[in-house]
Amino acid sequence: MAASLSRTMEDLNGKWAVNKKLSDNPNETLALQGIPHLARSAIQMAHVTYDLVQYTKSFEGKGGGRREVAFLEVTHTASGLLRGSKDVSCVEDSPRETTDWLFGTVVVQTRWATLEEMGDPFLREGWLDEVEGKAVRVTCAKNKLRRAQESGWRVEYGPGKALR
């Protein structure tokens, strides 16, 4: 996906379409995540969109006072016979479980981090200049294993950065 120059990391609201000419082929990543060949083929042929709604809510903090927490709702849709899904991220660095038809149960943790605070050197490179010195939203997702013999997967990503 590519954003217009009027968009910033603080405002990602809107409907975003995956541009397959600018995007890497997801087949290898999906295969590593255990997605069956037929589903991967359908995803590659589908027109995929993301409807993003970003907002903040005010909560009563421990010991009084109010605090603002950022949320991001993403509705994934795809053409064809693929079902969509909806994910709501609360950006406060707390793990939460989510389940969908494609990835199963996944533990997701989203936080704000500067580029210097990101653990993996790959995640610190290739950002737009506007991100320098600012915190960006970083999400870590790890599948919850159903059986001990499963190998599992983990992905860490941020908007505006390639998936690894």
UniProtKB/TrEMBL annotation:
Taxonomy, superkingdom: Eukaryota
PANTHER family, per database record: LIPOCALIN-LIKE DOMAIN-CONTAINING PROTEIN
Record-given protein name: Lipocalin-like domain-containing protein
Organism field: Phialemonium thermophilum
